[in-house]
């Protein structure tokens, strides 16, 4: 069993809800900003405001980690950063391969936040012969035929799929067959994977549609949707951790 699978088993045994796991990176981002600003301790109210959640939810989430803070003082920022980083597996390096080097793949390759958060991009792959061999962000784009070799040679743990929709499932099948059990999918398609493989989907068009939904309601559009009654999320909206990609 891998260390990641061990952590997943431990979280399940401790009863940490998936919704809490999804919010931990948001807390970590807020805490890192506080730490960079020289803040040593933070109250649950202050941290909740920085993370965009209510303080009761934050305290409950952190209690799953065994972190309750100190009455009248709050949470020690440095220690809480360590706690959450350890829980998320960020105290070790994770090797990533980016498959599909179009505009989005290039932006991901140039994103400086990966290394500072424990992720190392091992390489870039594409099927387009005109792109293969090109230097992007200090890496040489390799042909997709090298996919399995790259996974084996570099110990890739996470595959980022940024291909067109028509190629995504075939690529996913190959990375899973090569032993990768975590996939971040930017392709506009739902991927089918076997049990034990985790897929996180990021679809920017869906998020824009959700924002359009809210804009329509603000302007007095059709329907009687009450955002307060539904915790501010429209029907079918998925909560996920935002990934900011800087080109």
Q: Give the tally of structural domains.
A: 2
CATH topology type of the largest domain: Rossmann fold
Question: How many β-strands, per DSSP?
Answer: 9
The CATH superfamily of the largest domain is NAD(P)-binding Rossmann-like Domain
Major pleated sheet: 7 strands, mixed
Read across the widest sheet, the strand sequence of neighbours is 5-6-4-3-7-8-9
Low-confidence stretches: 227-247
Rounded mean pLDDT score: 85
Strand proportion, as a percent range, falls in 5-15%
Helix content: 40-55%
Q: What's the gyration radius in Å?
A: 20 Å
What does this protein structure show overall?
This protein has 247 residues and is α/β, with parallel strands linked by helices. The protein folds into 2 domains: 86 residues, Winged helix-like DNA-binding domain superfamily/Winged helix DNA-binding domain (Arc Repressor Mutant, subunit A), CATH 1.10.10; 109 residues, Rossmann fold (3-Layer(aba) Sandwich), CATH 3.40.50.720. The protein contains 10 helices and 9 strands. The strands form 2 sheets. The protein has a 7-stranded mixed β-sheet with strand order 5-6-4-3-7-8-9, with helices on both faces. Helix 2 packs across helix 3 and helix 2 crosses helix 5. The longest helix has 19 residues. The two termini are 37 Å apart. The relative contact order is 0.10.
């Amino acid at each position: 069993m891998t260390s990641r699978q061990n952590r997943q088993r431990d979280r399940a045994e401790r009863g940490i809800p998936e919704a809490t796991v999804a919010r931990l990176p948001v807390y970590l981002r807020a805490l890192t900003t506080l730490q960079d600003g020289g803040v040593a301790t933070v109250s649950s109210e202050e941290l909740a405001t920085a993370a965009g959640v209510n303080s009761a939810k934050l305290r409950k989430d952190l209690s799953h980690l065994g972190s309750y803070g100190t009455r009248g003082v709050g949470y020690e920022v440095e220690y809480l950063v360590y706690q959450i980083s350890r829980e998320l597996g960020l105290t070790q390096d994770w090797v990533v391969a980016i498959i599909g080097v179009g505009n989005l793949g290039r932006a991901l390759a140039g994103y400086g936040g990966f290394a500072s958060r424990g992720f190392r991009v091992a390489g870039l792959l594409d099927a387009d012969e005109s792109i293969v061999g090109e230097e992007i962000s200090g890496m040489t784009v390799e042909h997709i035929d090298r996919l399995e070799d790259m996974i084996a040679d570099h110990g890739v743990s996470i595959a980022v799929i940024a291909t067109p929709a028509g190629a995504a499932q075939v690529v996913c099948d190959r990375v899973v067959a090569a032993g990768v059990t975590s996939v971040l999918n930017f392709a506009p398609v739902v991927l089918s994977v076997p049990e034990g493989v985790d897929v996180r989907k990021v679809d920017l068009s869906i998020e824009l549609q959700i924002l359009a939904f809210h804009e329509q309601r603000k302007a007095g559009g059709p329907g009687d949707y009450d955002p307060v009654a539904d915790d501010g999320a429209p029907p079918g909206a998925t909560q996920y951790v935002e990934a900011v990609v800087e080109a």
